[in-house]
Amino acid sequence: KAGVTQTPRYLIKTRGQQVTLSCSPISGHRSVSWYQQTPGQGLQFLFEYFSETQRNKGNFPGRFSGRQFSNSRSEMNVSTLELGDSALYLCASSPVQSTDTQYFGPGTRLTVL
Amino acid sequence: ILNVEQSPQSLHVQEGDSTNFTCSFPSSNFYALHWYRWETAKSPEALFVMTLNGDEKKKGRISATLNTKEGYSYLYIKGSQPEDSATYLCAPPGGSQGNLIFGKGTKLSVKP
């Protein structure tokens, strides 16, 4: 089975721009979770999608949004980028529950200048 | 919000040393704890899922124990090797829908 893929792997944007990141889960997995990782902060949960619906949401501002398509692929969007949004964004898929074992993608490294 | 503490933050050992580190979590409403290993330039990889008090899981030289009553789990590595160098993360479910809450991890460096 192919693993979780994320595109792009690296991205450089400037403040005020918006960005869209993509995640393709393992085939058959219906839950996709997104995390932000910054130095010293560990993995911070952004949100989780299941069957095209946001099922759970972390404590991030409304500039962070996402969606999931019928094939379980998910996108994450960040609008009006700030310098502090520079981070590694990881997505993870699991069969049904976000509390199942999660399988992580390689991440997208976002740099905001 | 669930508070997950991992200690120590970092650890430097020599090849062949055995080591252990701790994950602390609230014991109320517990139902599972995940351990992940995250090597540099790779993705986090699942090690164990533990559910029962007194659970002990083993994978090669790595093992973990669980105490749900007092809210902690230990991860042990016997005879550390350089390839064990990674950040080890623990994560109990904790969100309103049960999403995993990750600790900040213990970064292990094993010198040859």
Description:
- The complex is a heterodimer of chains A (113) and B (112).
- With 113 residues, chain A is mainly β.
- Chain A is built from no helices and 11 strands.
- The radius of gyration of chain A is 13 Å and the shape is globular.
- The model of chain A has no long low-confidence stretch (mean pLDDT 94).
- Helices cover 0% and strands 48% of the residues of chain B.
- In chain B, strand 6 and strand 7 form a beta hairpin.
- The chains are: A mainly beta (113), B mainly beta (112).
- At the A-B interface, strand 5 and strand 10 of A face strand 5 of B.
End-to-end CA span of chain B: 40 Å
Ranges of chain A with pLDDT <50 over ≥5 residues? none
Q: Could you give the count of β-strands of chain A?
A: 11
Principal-axes shape call of chain B: globular
Structural class of chain B: mainly beta
Largest sheet of chain A: 7 strands, mixed
Tell me the number of strands of chain B.
Answer: 10
Assembly context of the chains: heterodimer
- Please state the CA-atom Rg of chain B, rounded to the nearest Å: 13 Å
The amount of helix of chain A comes to under 10%
Count of individual helical segments of chain A: 0
What descriptors fit this protein?
heterodimer, A: 113 residues, mainly beta, four-stranded antiparallel β-sheet, 11 strands, B: 112 residues, five-stranded mixed β-sheet, 10 strands, 0% helix, globular
